[in-house]
Design goal:
The complex is a heterodimer. By secondary structure, chain A is mostly beta strands. Chain A has helices at about 110-140, 145-150, and strands spanning about 5, 10-15, 20, 30, 40-45, 50-55, 60-65, 65-70, 70-75, 80, 85-90, 155-160, 170-175, 185-190, 195-200, 205-210, 220-225, 230-235, 240-245. Chain A has a six-stranded antiparallel beta sheet with strand order 2-1-11-10-7-8, with no helix packed on it. Chain B has a single domain (about 5-160), classed as Immunoglobulin-like (Sandwich). Classes of the chains: A mainly beta, B alpha+beta.
Chain lengths: ~260, ~160
Amino acid sequence: MPLALLDDQGHEHPIGPVLRIGSQGANHIVLADPLVSSVHATLWDQKGTFYIRDENTPGGTFVNGAKIRLTTLKPGDRVQIGRSLFQVEQARPSGAVAAPARPQPKKGVGWGKILAAGCMLAMGGCFALALGGFVAYKAQILTPESLMNLVGLGPGDIEVVNFRDDSMAVSILQLDVPEDSGPMGTSLDMNPYDVRRWRVQNPGRYRVDFVTADGAANLGGCTLTVRSGNYYQFVTMPETIVIRLKGETPETGADLVVSSSTLCR
Amino acid sequence: MLRHSQRRHLLRSLILICAAFVLVGCAPMILITNNADFGVSVVVAAKGSQQLVSLAPGGETAVEVAEGAYGVYVYPDREWIEFARTKRQEIVMILEYPVDLSPVEIVEVLAHLDGISERIKQLEAQAEGVACSGNVTGDGGGVVNVGSDPNAVITVSCN
């Protein structure tokens, strides 16, 4: 009998060939929780036996209160990841998900009461929004940077990982430079296995080129459009250069390689 | 009376001008020198971002960071290099024929890529005792000197 994870909202997540839980958008269950690692736990069904594995996370994964590295799951088990709690249950057959109860219409409710209730609800909503905004600001969840991202004017990021055995240089240059400002860009000299990040203050189109340290050979390049809040990761390998936009899952494997990725257009 | 699109354009322009004052400008640099007689990996953590540079004995490099506080964590470089080579091999194996990747394999690649930053965070968390911190502003960068004592124990200072 297939198993599923039931979250505290009542949503069912079937444990199929693979079910990943983490804070990054590429996971099947995404938990926006500082205690949760980008890829936190993996669950899978292996011929009717259901496993859960913690991905060496600092926060840990707990089954029935015990910290685990790898264990099996059975109906009734409780899985805790960060602040989220899941119940292991037998999966419902598809289509058998219980429909939410429809409220029965009540008779004899006057327009005045409906209006009053609407006003109360609106005031309550405004108050909750203001309180939530204040708490988020104090807890530094809502930062000036995230506000800038909301209006599309915040910075983006380009991370370059040199997984070659040789040094290399990376040049990042803004294209379509406004007439009243100079071009934004940088040049990074990278030793083997270095990881460097450059903050793109002006979102827009950028040209990223990878060359050997002596400048003799071009390793590849990409013209990409950096939007506010985007985080691009390049990983140079001996034979290829990998690209990804963090938080996005590419549709095809070709999108993971600079020479064929739709991100490089 | 301004139309909606004009008002929106004006608002965006005002925010852009304000943002330019805040955001544009030269980001401070941290100059890192390795005076130890062995290679080191240095994690530079500043404002939610981690960068990692490997330096041969006598090597030096400059790392651009955001203004504010930064932390530096130092290791013998073999630990990071072993991880990097293993991770590279894992990614290369899956990416041999990228066009043929299944959705599960794509998620595997993404997990490996996430693993790089996760590992740097772990290194940062482990480096108790071989770390220092400092503060940089737009007017002045930082200087980090890595060395070793006679017992080949790493020392580091941030100025």
